[in-house]
Design goal:
Elements: H1 2-34, E1 36-47, E2 50-54, H2 56-59, E3 63-67, E4 72-77, E5 80-92, E6 100-105, E7 110-114, E8 118-122, E9 128-135
Length: 137
């Protein structure tokens, strides 16, 4: 009995350390994958009263982001720089949900969901605008 009292708290501590280590690996991987040029493909407006989709055809514009290794992101519209700003990534934990990555910047803010060559950013699961980008090779 005494041996089990020691074993279970130790197991919980190991699980917590493993989760935080995995989160740091995830954060590092997302940051590494962000480096480069990303073309905007659409914005989805999510609202209880409706919504809509804006894309390069509907706005008659081209937008893209360039993420740099020094934690700076440049925002371009029609090949003119609109803004350059620092960015940071944070991890967010809630109960047993998957780890969420949040990006903070004056250029873009919100949860970031990344796939191999694309990502979305915004308030997923809530109201607002969700921006989607695809990586240019």
């Amino acid at each position: 009995m005494h041996n089990n009292c020691i074993r279970y708290p130790l197991l919980i501590i190991v699980c917590i350390i493993a989760k935080f280590s995995f989160a740091q690996d995830t954060l590092t991987k997302v940051k590494s994958n962000l480096i480069g040029r990303w073309h905007w493909i659409r914005t989805e407006i999510v609202d209880r009263g409706g919504g809509g989709i804006i894309n390069p055809s509907t706005c008659h514009c081209q937008k893209y982001l360039i993420f740099k290794a020094n934690d700076i992101v440049d925002q371009y519209i029609n090949d003119s720089i609109l803004m350059s700003a620092n960015y940071s990534l944070d991890k967010y934990f809630f109960l047993n949900d998957p780890i969420k990555i949040i990006i903070h910047s004056s250029v873009l803010n919100g949860q970031i969901i990344m796939k191999e060559k694309s990502f979305g950013v915004g308030p997923f699961g809530g109201c607002g605008s969700l921006d989607y980008y695809i990586k240019q090779d």
